[in-house]
Specification:
- The protein is α+β, with helices and mostly antiparallel strands and 98 residues long.
- The chain contains two helices and four strands; from the N terminus they run E-E-E-H-E-H.
- The protein has a four-stranded mixed beta sheet, with helices on one face.
- The protein starts with a strand and ends in a 17-residue tail after the last helix.
Length: 98
Amino acid sequence: MKKGEVYVFEQDGEVFGYTLFRRIWDEQGKLVRIILYQLKVVGKVPVNYISRMLATIAEETVPVMAINFMKNSSEAQYLMNNGFVITTEQVLMRKIMK
């Protein structure tokens, strides 16, 4: 991923999560969108820390697009419960050949 950023979050010296994202800027240098590639909460930290993690990415309100998230992960569930909508899904199909 070109021009991507990663933030690692810690509390009391313990890592509790990370984000991998890319900021999209317009020609005037204004932040117009954030593409969130990975978001993970680890350890015994409540999943609602995700809002704190997202707040550090942008100082202003901009659209955020999350891609490649497992639909049943706690992070994806938190995002969907807080206004994110699924617009496109991928399906893994397998055929067993004999």
